[in-house]
């Protein structure tokens, strides 16, 4: 049952088949492309929608134990991310300003900012980065940095011309969709790494992750979060019911 608290820290954060969707195109033939065109194609492939809903099967493995559950998932683009475990035993609600979740089993709740995610997974993330991570977009703004690119195996590799002082960044891009195949952040001095890998599906004419595999490594903790997206639908009218029950203890 600890999965409810664990899912909250990623909220989760915040995927293998989706019965209402068909798989994306088979592997594309990879051809040389300029870095500018690669960044442009990725940015232009960002999903345009108002709302998204579906179910996410979550499996968590920290090396000592494995746990899993299925979550209801809702998103209003740029405004809110909402998840709920069966029977409402756990709920989480993210907005650009805050993270909030509660756990009925332990009668406790959390309310705070996105510094919580940084403490849990070792990487600084804001709402738009969490949203991008869930949708297969880069968690850094590619237009604001200078990159170099080449071909690595069957994918495009994108790296900053000058790595950040605090962390190293590596991005692999799928040539069939120009979505992120993998994005990796390393803080070697702190012994931290954060990797996210993707597999994609088509929902109607939109390309959306089907599976997201998150690996977070800290000096005293390694964890894997495996997310499977199912029954995803765009642009339905949604509500985001969320109220912390009375009498719950605040998690510090």
From TrEMBL:
Family matches, as InterPro entries: DUF4292 (IPR025634)
Highest taxon listed in the record's lineage: Bacteria
Keyword RNA-binding among record annotations: no
Signal found in the keyword field: yes
PROSITE patterns registered for this protein in UniProt: PROKAR_LIPOPROTEIN
Key words of the record: Signal
Signal sequence range: 1-20
The protein's name in its UniProt record: Deoxyuridine 5'-triphosphate nucleotidohydrolase
Organism in which the protein naturally occurs: Aureicoccus marinus
